[in-house]
Amino acid sequence: MDQPVPASPDIVENGLLNGRVRLRQPARGYRAGLDAALLAAAVPALPGQRVLEAGCGAGGVLMQIAARRPEAVLTGLERDPLMAALARDNAGLNGVEDRTTIRTGDVAKGFRALDLPPFDWAVSNPPFFDDPATLRAPAEAKRGAWMADDGLQAWTAFLLKAVREGGRIVVIHRADRLADLLALLGDKAGAVAVRPIHPFADQPAKRVLVHAVKTARAPLRLLPPLVLHDRSGAKHAPEAEAVLRGDVALDW
After folding, report:
1. Closest to 117 (Cα-Cα) out of 43, 52, 20, 189
2. At residue 113, does pLDDT exceed 70?
């Protein structure tokens, strides 16, 4: 039986979605934040649909999907045993352990290693870098979340294998990797939709949300952007605040 993570000063509890979600996560290192909230908002799973998250960490995305989509069935894959244990704890903390499964495993081993049937949705916030020479080395506690040891190709290949024909893939990533993402999805997915995420309306996008449908052939769509901040002095622009509070979703 999986053992809960004991109470520790190194583990803190945070509230997400305006307090609808409780999340235990490390006090230092990678923590679920804005990207996790945006990814969860972009997964409009229907009742009974099965959703897999690759690299689920402590479950920040999955728990927000669970709150937004109360009849979705959730599975997370996480290679760090401590983070996987926290994700299991968080499923219990939020009362969704009956429809949440957390597997400890590595994306690099491929989807077939899980011995699971394909999913309706496969989603991920992959590590943003796969070349250590491109940036100053991150703190060791963040390295696994920031640095993809096997590259973005391994993550997209995993996601493509993880969904059935007609299944959906959603990824949030750096805007400057958009061309790489589109190339890696290649001819195995279509009906691609891209939503740019801008820090301010007059600044370039820093993130993109990318949605694709396996084996579809519809043309690419570039959707209206989400702008996170305005010049009013508020923490977030009204539309972004509504997304982060869980009042609206980012549909495709």
Report:
1. 52
2. yes
Among the residues of the chain, which ranges form H helices?
A: 34-41, 60-68, 81-93, 140-146, 151-162, 178-185, 238-245
205: CB partners within 8 A, 6+ apart: 175, 196, 197, 198, 225
Contact 9, 30 (CB under 8 A): no
User: Cβ neighbours of residue 178 under 8 Å, at least 6 residues apart?
Assistant: 194, 208, 210
Q: What is the 3-state secondary structure (H, E, C) of 200-226?
A: CCCCCCCEEEEEEEECCCCCCEECCCE
Of 158, 208, 203, whose CA–CA distance to 184 is shortest? 158
Q: Using DSSP bridges, classify how beta strands 163-174 and 100-104 pair: parallel, antiparallel or unpaired.
A: unpaired
Q: Mention every residue, 6+ apart, whose C-beta is less than 8 A from residue 160.
A: 169, 185, 188, 189, 214
Question: Would you say residue 148 has pLDDT above 70?
Answer: no
Mean residue pLDDT of the chain comes to: 91
Measure the CA–CA gap between 144 and 127, rounded to whole angstroms: 7
Q: What is the pLDDT of residues 173-201, one digit of tens each?
A: 999 999 999 999 988 999 999 999 999 99
- Residue 16 banded pLDDT, cuts 50, 70, 90: very high
| Closest to 52 measured CA to CA, from 108, 106, 118 | 118
217 pLDDT band, cuts 50/70/90, is very high
Cα–Cα distance list, 68 to 15, 74, 126, 206 (Å): 15, 12, 22, 25
Distance between CA 144 and CA 125 in Å, rounded? 12
Contact partners, residue 53, CB within 8 Å, separation at least 6: 61, 62, 65, 74, 75, 76, 77, 122, 123, 124
